[in-house]
């Protein structure tokens, strides 16, 4: 869904090697359509692998190259644990709620 010009994607289940191509297709299409600000809601993620983390890093880099930004919202305990273990909690902005994440973005104008 989109709110205030920010694309919010709610992920569910596992985010592992098998899901990376699907996420790539969704995000690439969104970026091509002009989305520059994306929130990944991670509340319902039950497992995340190094491939999933790598994809999140790739999305972040891709958005930054376009003067955009990625934020993570509502990380599940598993996601928070893996981000902490990988020392990535400071790499991405992580917010306790979607509302906090939305407020962290500047007013958005679509191109």
Notable traits:
globular, alpha/beta, 28% strand, 5-stranded mixed β-sheet, 41% helix, Transcription Regulator spoIIAA, 4 helices, 111 residues
List the helices and strands and how they pair.
Layout: E1 2-3, E2 6-15, H1 20-32, E3 37-48, H2 50-65, E4 69-73, H3 77-85, E5 94-95, H4 98-104
Helix pairs in contact: 1-2
Describe the structure concisely for a colleague:
Helices cover 41% and strands 28% of the residues.
Model description:
The chain is of the alpha/beta class and 111 residues long. The protein has a single domain (2-104), classed as Transcription Regulator spoIIAA, CATH 3.30.750. The protein contains 4 helices and 5 strands; from the N terminus they run E-E-H-E-H-E-H-E-H. A 5-stranded mixed beta sheet has the order 1-2-3-4-5. Helix 1 (20-32) packs parallel to helix 2. The protein is globular and about 35 Å long.
Q: In CATH, what is the class? A: Alpha Beta
Unreliable stretches (pLDDT < 50, length at least 5) are none
The quaternary structure here is single chain
Helix content class: 40-55%
Q: What structural category do the secondary elements indicate?
A: alpha/beta
Query: What topology, given as strand order, has the largest sheet?
Result: 1-2-3-4-5
How far is the first residue's CA from the last residue's CA? 18 Å
Largest sheet: 5 strands, mixed
Mean pLDDT: 93
Instruction: Please state the second-level CATH architecture.
Output: 2-Layer Sandwich
Q: Which range does the strand content fall in?
A: 25-35%
Give the total of domains.
1
Total DSSP E strands: 5
Q: Give the overall shape.
A: globular
CATH superfamily heading: STAS domain
Estimated radius of gyration: 13 Å
Number of H/I helices: 4
Spell out the helices and strands N to C: EEHEHEHEH
CATH topology name, in short, is Transcription Regulator spoIIAA
